[in-house]
Write a structure and sequence with these properties.
alpha+beta, Beta-Lactamase, rod-shaped, about 190 residues
């Protein structure tokens, strides 16, 4: 066997080896791609599930806080007495209560006609008709809150600034009636 044949046989062996390795490398690459894709999908599903769980927990905490505060107010109302004194007691009860991150959450009360009864951050609107109030997106949120309260309590989404002179941010509130359906608390 001469040198040229030996080189040709060696080259042929390398080509055969390369031809046998290429399909295995392609299959391995495809398999790795599928595994990475499935892992990413699983991660996305887990994150979405975790996010939904957190939202559900926060909603339940909010609902619980509103219901507890409602019971405290109903106890004040049940004692009876002078309407002005009762109203002042209700306002004093809810005024210092804060919840959620940075104590950004608070309670406010309206009549079913849209008149503000108590608002700890905006006492200047107490006793005023707010039925036509709209958020930054044009949502008549007081009307929507009234409907939610009349339907045995529901969550409502609207936009509202967290602090004065700040842009409106998405907000989710729970509204439920109290005072024999004359008021609602959020």
């Amino acid at each position: 066997m001469d040198k040229a044949n030996a080189i040709m046989i060696k080259t042929l062996k390398h080509k055969l080896l390369l031809l046998s390795l290429l399909p295995m490398l392609a299959i391995l690459s495809i398999a790795m791609g599928v595994v990475i894709y499935l892992e990413n999908q699983s991660l996305k599903e887990n994150v979405a599930h975790y996010k939904q769980e957190l939202i559900s927990e926060r909603q339940q905490e909010l609902k619980d806080a509103v219901v507890i505060t409602r019971h405290a107010i109903e106890n004040i109302l049940a004692k009876g007495g002078d309407d002005t004194a009762i109203l002042e007691d209700v306002r004093q009860l809810i005024s210092p209560i804060r919840f959620a991150e940075n104590d950004a959450g608070y309670f406010f009360i309206y009549t079913m006609n849209g008149v503000n009864v108590a608002h700890p951050l905006k006492p200047e609107i107490q006793g005023t008709d707010q039925i036509g109030a709209t958020d930054a997106n044009g949502v008549a949120y007081i009307k929507v809150l009234i409907d939610a309260a009349k339907n045995n309590g529901q969550f409502v989404k609207y936009s509202f600034p967290k602090k004065a002179n700040q842009p409106a941010q998405p907000k989710k509130s729970y509204a439920i009636s109290l005072n024999d359906g004359k008021w609602f608390i959020v």
